[in-house]
Structures are given as C-alpha cells and as structure tokens.
Amino acid sequence: MTHAIRIHEYGGPEVMKWEEVVVAAPGPGEVLLKQTAVGLNYIDVYVRTGAYPQPALPFTPGMEGAGEILAVGAGVDDLKSGDRVAYAGPVGSYAEDRLIAADRIVKIPDTIPDQTAAAMMLQGMTVRYLFRKTFDVKPDTTMLFHAAAGGVGLIACQWAKHIGATLIGTAGTDEKCELAKAYGATHMINYNTEDFVARVKELTDGKGCDVVYDSIGQSTCLGSLDCLKPFGLFVTFGAASGPITDFDVKLLAGKGSLYMTRPTLFTYIAQRSDLLETAGDLIHVVESGAVKLNINQTYDLKDAVTAHRDLEARKTTGSTVLLTG
Ligand code: NDP
Predict the structure, then answer these.
(1) Which residue from 40, 41, 42 has its CB within 8 A of the most atoms of ligand 1, so it is best to mutate?
(2) Cα(27) to centroid(ligand 1), Å
(3) End-to-end CA distance of the chain
C-alpha cells in the first residue's frame, strides 16, 4: 500500500485528499518509480480547479517528480531498477509511487540531488524552450519577463544573464524585485506600485523590447503588447491572473505588426529526441553552476493543500518541492 493526493472534484486547495492507493506492476513500456521529491508548479492550480480538465475523476495531480526506479515493464531496455530519474509530465506526480511511460523519463547525474531534479524539470525546461526555441535569445536581446521572482522567473533571470541578454523583470513586491536582481535580472519593476509600460519605455529609451514573456495573462496582456518594438514577439505562456478572453487580433497590427504565440512545454518535448535535447541543455547549465535552483519552500507531500494556498496567495518565491518523507 502506498499514498497519493487524490482529487474527486475540481475546486479550491481543499479538494486535494491524502489517500491510500494501490499501484500496479509496470506494464509494457512503463516504469514504476519511488519518488522522493515532487515539484510544485502553477499549472497544478489550473489542473486542480478544472481550468485544464482531466480525462476522468478521481485523479492524482502534479506533473513533476524525481526518485528511483523500482521496476521496469516489458520492452524497457535503456532503464533499470535503481536508476535515479526525473520527469515533467504527464499528470500524476503527487504520489509516493507512480507508474509512468519510460519515454518520459530522464536519467539524472549524481551531481544533481533529487530535490533539485524535482524542482528543475518543468520550470527549467520551460525556460530552455522559451529562450532557445520560441525566440532565439542572444546577447543583444532585450526582453520583458513577468513574475521574475517565481519558479520559472528565477531560472529565467539566471539563464538570461548566462546568455548575456537584457532581462527587464516584474514582480509584486520590492523584496521579490531585490531577489530577482540578485539572481541576474538587469532591471526590476514592482508592477503593483509602478506603471510597468512607462518604466519599460524609459529603460529601453523608448524603443521597447524584442520579446515579452507573459505568464500572468489577463491583468498584464494589453500592457505587455505596449512594451514591444515593431515586429516584436508576444509570448503568452500562462494565466496566473486569469485567462485572456475576447482578444482582438487587430491590436497586433495597431501596435506594430506584432507576432503572438501561446506555447506549451509539452509540444516542445513531445518527441523523445526533443525531451532529451531540452533536458540535456538544462542539466548542463545546472551542473556548470550557471543556473541554481532556488528551493525556497518545501512541504510534506501530504500538506499539498497548504502549498497550493501559499502559491496562489503569491507567498512563494523561486521553486517549491513537496517531499514524500
Ligand atoms: P510562480 O512561482 O511564478 O508563481 C506565480 C506568480 O505569478 C506569483 O508568485 C505571482 O508573482 C504572479 N502572479 C501575478 N498575478 C497573480 C495572481 N492574480 N495570482 C497568483 N499569482 C499571480 O509559478 P511557476 O513558476 O510555476 O509558473 C509561472 C507561470 O508560468 C505560470 O503562469 C505557469 O502556468 C506558467 N508556465 C507555463 C508553461 C508553458 O509551457 N506554457 C510551463 C511552466 C509554467 P508576483 O507576486 O511577483 O506577481
């Protein structure tokens, strides 16, 4: 017998229940994992509320974890019992033990502890595709990156600095702004007390940014478009303040023939070769020390309710890991 968080109905954090579950032996192409650490991500909130509906209820939420392989199913030749591994997706990670398709798993080197692996896979691979695939960030790139003191945000600050690009970040408190600067943001704007559009204009001598990375959605979308140069790229990749609805595409013309994309990590790592390339780059920047994972909060996995409350109340910074104990 093992334990997992189960959701029987969509709703607030309290719908997550710690329950005993039975996990079957791995089928063909699957592995059974004993997880030590599970990553907390904002996407877990969208899944819990039903904004990203799941195929069936009840289900186990969560998309990221790390641990050791207990058993492999038929046809799995490149992994074995005892291997240390980590992954980002599919849903089902808030569990002591889980089954997962072997082709979603990445081996983790001994230099990277389980907690770091659990914290880095989803947020770190996200930054990698945002900076290398969605837009090719170069030393002369100027970007606006919202929520720069969050999990994805602190990784982005360090990766942008590593590339040599200019990252103008936003965050909701002065303390968060200081934190993001300490991790490499070139400039920070407290968007609760300052007009971020006016500040971006000032900081870029009226030119605007090449690219805006916006995971806030509803409350920042229109302002973000005003921070771009003509032909600039608006990357809307999350909706922490609520989804963008009724978007008038003519705005893209009026504001300078802008480009817009709504990417998701899961397209960028759908092919096994893309997953390995993306994870390989991430492991490289983490092992080299260019990107450090800031695990600023840990909770017992069974206390996921509290972790979700803190994340939604904007109390967390950097990454958060849930421990199986
Ligand atoms: P964060 O640690 O960044 O937490 C979310 C942050 O958003 C908060 O800390 C807060 O920072 C900010 N925020 C602004 N408005 C609100 C609001 N109304 N309610 C709550 N928070 C708000 O989370 P993650 O690092 O896990 O994820 C960051 C974003 O990236 C999320 O929107 C997530 O969905 C998205 N994402 C998208 C992916 C993709 O491929 N499309 C993959 C991974 C993440 P502050 O107080 O500074 O404003």
Answers:
(1) 42
(2) 35
(3) 15
Distance of alpha carbon 187 from alpha carbon 181, whole angstroms: 7
Are residues 155 and 75 in contact, defined by beta-carbon separation less than 8 angstroms? Answer: no
Please work out whether the CB of residue 235 comes within 6 Å of at least one atom of ligand 1.
Answer: no
Alpha carbon distance 302, 17 (integer Å): 8
Residues 6+ apart with CB under 8 A from 175: none
pTM across the whole model: 0.98
Is the distance from the beta carbon of residue 105 to the nearest atom of ligand 1 less than 6 Å? Answer: no
**To test the ligand 1 pocket, which listed residue (132, 135, 152, 188) has its Cβ within 8 A of the most ligand atoms?**
152
Look up residue 320 and give its two tokens. 């958060």
CA of 204 to the centre of ligand 1 (A): 25
Q: Is the CB of 236 under 6 A from ligand 1?
A: no
Per-residue pLDDT of the chain (325 residues; tens, 9 = 90+): 899 999 999 999 999 999 999 999 999 999 999 999 999 999 999 999 999 999 999 999 999 999 999 999 999 999 999 999 999 999 999 999 999 999 999 999 999 999 999 999 999 999 999 999 999 999 999 999 999 999 999 999 999 999 999 999 999 999 999 999 999 999 999 999 999 999 999 999 999 999 999 999 999 999 999 999 999 999 999 999 999 998 999 999 999 999 999 999 999 999 999 999 999 999 999 999 999 999 999 999 999 999 999 999 999 999 999 999 7
Q: Which atom of ligand 1 is nearest to the CA of 43?
A: 34
| Inter-CA distances, 302 with 59, 201, 216, 322, 325, Å | 15, 46, 28, 8, 9
Contact 41 CB / ligand 1 (< 6 Å) = yes
The full set of domains in the chain, from first to last, is 2-121+276-323 (3.90.180.10), 139-262 (3.40.50.720)
